[in-house]
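Obj: model holo form, ligand = adenosine monophosphate.
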Amino acid sequence: MTMIGVLGGGQLGRMLALAGYPLGLRFRFLDPAAEAPAEHLAERLIQDFRDSHHLDRFTAGLDVITYEFENVPVELARKLEQTLPVYPPPAALEASQDRLSEKTLFQRLGLPTAPFAPVQSRDELHSALDHLGFPAILKTRRFGYDGKGQHAIQAPADAETAWGELAGVPLLLEGFVPFERELSQLAVRGRDGATAFYPLVENHHEGGILRRSLAPAPGTNGTLQNLACEYGTRVLQALNYVGVLAIEFFCRGGELIANEMAPRVHNSGHWTIEGAQTSQFENHLRAVLGWPLGSTALVQPCAMFNLIGQLPDCQALLSLPDVHVHLYGKTPRPGRKLGHVTVRAANQRQLREKLQRVSGVGRRELK
Ligand code: AMP
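Output (holo C-alpha cells):
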C-alpha cells in the first residue's frame, strides 16, 4: 500500500488524507503542535520541525513526502530529499518563505508585483519610503501569515510605529497596490510536467484572514484566466514544481499583480472538494505520486466560507440543499479556522440567492 508522509498535520493534511483514502493511500503526519486535526485520521508523530535527527520513525516505509504548511525548514526538506522524493521541491519552499526572494522570483519571471525594497535599518526604511512613497506596507520577510507581521504606513508619522512594531527581523517595504479585488490561481503540475489550472477564485479577507472565496471569480473573462495560467506556468516551470501551487494576485482592470504564493494546497481551493471534477487535495496527491492529474473543470459555481473562532448552527446549515459543512475537530479559539462551508448552485444568480439564505441561517459567522 502506498504510504505518504506529510510534514504538518493541520486541516490541510486532514483533507489530504480524506482525499487519499478512496485511492487506497495511507498517511503518516509529523507535527509538533498540541492539537493536529490530521491525527484524528492517521498516525501522527510529535516532533519539532527543527529537529532533523530521529527522522527514521517518520520516514520508515514511506513512498513520498509532501508538506501542508510552508514554514517547514528548508534544511529538513533537503535532508529528507536525500533518501525519499520530497514534493513540492524544497526550492519552492525556500522561495515562498521569504517575501523578498518570492517577489524577486516573480519579477525575474515577468509577473508584475507591488514595488518593493528590503529594509534592515531605520535609515533603509526612510530611504525606501522616499523611493516608494505613501501609502506603503512594511512586512516581515519571513513567517508572516493571516495578516500578521505587517503594518500599513499611511503617512510619514506612521513610519516610527511600524518600525517599533516590526524591527529586529529582516523586513520588506511594499508600495500599496490600489486593487479592485483579490484573486487566486490554483495550479497543479505532475512529475511528468503535465499542468492543470483551476478557474480563478475571488477572495475576501478581513483582518488579513481569508473569510470567503467565490469560484469561479465572478465576471472573469478568458483573457484574465489565460493570463493567470501563463503566470502560473512560468512559476511551475521555473521551480520544476510538482504538486498544487497557489498564487495570490491583486486584480486591477485586466492586470494581475502577484502578491504571494503557497507551495501547497490552499484555503482558497477548498471549494474544489464539491465544486471541481477533481479536488485540489486529490490532484496534489496524484501529482506527488506521479499519477495522471484529474480534471480541474468546474462542476458548479461555489462559495466557500471559513468558520473562524466559533461555530454557527451547523445542523441548520445542513438543512439547506447543496450546502456542505467541513469541521476540522479543533478547539474553538478567537481567530482560529475551525472549518469551512461550501455552497453550490447551478449558476451565479442562484448562488447569490442561496448565499442570502445561508447567511440568515449561519448568523454573523458567515458574513
Ligand atoms: P499578505 O500577507 O501579503 O497576503 O497581505 C495580507 C493582505 O493585506 C492582502 O490579502 C491584501 O489585502 C493586503 N495587502 C498586502 N500587501 C498589499 C499591497 N502591497 N498593497 C495593497 N494591499 C496589500
